Every structure is written in C-alpha cells, then in structure tokens.
Hints:
By secondary structure, this protein is mainly α. It has a domain at about 5-85 and about 130-160: Winged helix-like DNA-binding domain superfamily/Winged helix DNA-binding domain (Arc Repressor Mutant, subunit A, Orthogonal Bundle). It has 7 helices and 4 strands, in the order H-E-H-H-E-E-H-H-H-H-E. The chain has helices at about 5-20, 30-35, 40-50, 75-85, 115-130, 135-140, 145-155; strands at about 25, 55-60, 65, 160. The chain has a two-stranded antiparallel ribbon. A two-stranded antiparallel ribbon has the order 2-3. A hairpin with a 5-residue loop joins strand 2 (about 55-60) and strand 3 (about 65). Helix 1 (about 5-20) packs across helix 3 (about 40-50), helix 1 crosses helix 4 (about 75-85) and helix 2 crosses helix 3. The protein is elongated. The protein starts with a helix and ends with a strand.
Amino acid sequence: xxxxxxxxxxxxxxxxxxxxxxxxxxxxxxxxxxxxxxxxxxxxxxxxxxxxxxxxxxxxxxxxxxxxxxxxxxxxxxxxxxxxxxxxxxxxxxxxxxxxxxxxxxxxxxxxxxxxxxxxxxxxxxxxxxxxxxxxxxxxxxxxxxxxxxxxxxxxxxxxxxxx
Length: 164
C-alpha cells in the first residue's frame, strides 16, 4: 500500500504540534517553512485534521494550530485516517468468477481468500497504528527534541503563540 506524501506531512506536523507548550499554536506557514513544504497544500491537510478533531485551529493574528486533545488521546490511526480515510486499500472485484478461468458460483459462496487475507492485513495495519499515540511517539524522541522544535519554530516566521 502506498500512502500519499501528505500522510508523512501530517504525521510530522501533528508530532511537532505535540511538542509545543500547552496552549501554544503554530501556523500553517510556520510548519510549512519548518519542513520546507508548500504552505497552501499543507494548510488544506491541516484543515482535514481539524475536521477530524485531531487539531484545533484559531484565527486572527494569534491564530494557528494546536492539538485538539492530549497527545495521549491521539493515535497515529486518527491522524492517518483524517487525511486518507478509513476505507481499505484493496477491493475484490471477484475476478475469480470472470473470464475463461471463472469458477462456478457454487465455489464462490465464501469470501474470496485473497480478499480475506488483504482485509486481515488492513486490520492488522490499523491495529498497529491505533496502538501508538502521539505521546508514545514523543516518548521515543531524543529528550532534547521538544526544546529544539520549539526553538526552531520560533525562528520561522513568528514564534509559536499562546492561544487565547
């Protein structure tokens, strides 16, 4: 399965926002500069996270993005599904019943074994992402990472801000 590049962007941006002080925000422009990404496209992806309840957005001169709830309550699956959706990547079109090699209908009463195996793999992938929260990711980062992130974000555009 190949996910769009925006999946990497939002995973990193959510992790970055999790490193900010409580209540602090970062703008889409700051995050785009921080990662050298196209700001307008990143902003659309961040809005998808807002719609999914992963991020909260504030407008105005002190506006920006922050986590909508504690990092321990946001899983990697929440972030990924906010931008990529929850539908499985594999769709069985029952080609086993078509063409010269078509099986008789009586041999196709059960779910296609390949479809079942692909569904199992998708479920395992989703379970794996659901097991790790942003807090778990932060705990695996070097201890100096949050302070470095806050410092570097402060030097991009304008400093991370406290939302009112």
